[in-house]
Amino acid sequence: MHMGWKYWLTRTKKNGGEDAAFICTDANTVGVADGVGGWAEKGIDAGAYARNLMDNAKQLATALKSAADEKSIPLDALRVLVGAHRVTRDPGSATACVAVFEGSTMRATNIGDSGFAIIRQRELCFKSPPQQHSFNFPYQIGFGSDADHPAMADRFEVELRSGDVVIMATDGLFDNVFDKQLCHMVSEAQDKGLTPQQTASNLASFAQRLGMTAVVRSPFSVAAANAGYLFMGGKLDDTSVVVTYVSEPSEDSDNLSEPSSASSEPKKPPSSEPTEASLRNPEDAAPGAEEEARWGSEIRRNRLCHRPF
Asked: How many CB atoms lie within 10 A of CB 188?
């Protein structure tokens, strides 16, 4: 599998710098987290918890992978998240998504409104649903009694195919980019031969541009209207994007390919952004019954018991 990732810090956002991500090549495990910005109002670095949660998850994934291999059992993404949560003691909270790739199988867990999407044959094959107590109030894990428990996270097991593209991201992407726009950009990136790093960079920068625009219809503005709020434009937020290209074992090593420098900028990749006309009038459709019938046999999802709020 080929992988690349991009983190875009929102410098014009008052409390920017709240996202974190990791790639663990030793355990073929990746993750993203979004620190809850409300902690900044209490004088707490809202990104510290997310960064340390992902650092701990990366270290734990390596240790758990070795133990799993000795017992000939698969590595569990939820176990990685639960373990990282247990040892992260910084004040704060975060949404989080972690995925483990083993052969053609991806096992993922997600809590809150970060998540992942799978693009297959230029279409949206599957997208993890956000977990929210109410509009703009996502489930979140943290250090303290007020946070949600990581066992409330959704769990997924997906059989991937060669040619699939897995997009894992924080809500900075999904709040600003419609599913059809996401599919269009990914498909165009594949047509142009862009690397995963270049595709991740294009998606992150595109989401940032939309987040600073007050005249477009966005997934966030649609969700706000459905919840009874008047909101127009994008939602300015940090954006972390991890892109994975899935290939046959004969085409590539089974290990994930980590960028040489996570902070390095790609050398001006060809743009794969939609036209301005498509930004003004994005038409979006979430996967419905037909799509679920088409792809559902390859995706198993187990939503654990949710604590009422």
From this structure: 18
Helix (H, G, I), strand (E, B) or coil at 133: strand
- Closest by CA to 25, choosing from 103, 100, 75, is 100
pTM above 0.70, yes or no: yes
Q: Give dist(CA 84, CA 94) in Å, integer.
A: 12
**pLDDT for position 1:** 74
The answer to whether residues 149 and 196 touch, using CB atoms and an 8 Å cutoff, is no
Low-confidence ranges of the chain (pLDDT < 70): 5-16, 145, 250-309
Q: Tokens in use for 299?
A: 């995706």
Concatenating the DSSP letter of every residue in 164-184 gives -EEEEE-HHHHTTS-HHHHHH
CA 285/CA 179 separation, integer angstroms:
7
Count the neighbouring beta carbons within 10 Å of the beta carbon of residue 9: 14
CA distance to 48, 103, 116, 193, 273, per residue, from 206 (Å) = 26, 31, 17, 18, 7
Contacts of 251 (CB under 8 A, 6+ apart): 162
What amino acid occupies position 230?
A: L
Residues 212-269: tens digit of each pLDDT:
999 899 999 999 999 999 999 999 999 999 999 998 875 544 445 443 223 323 333 3
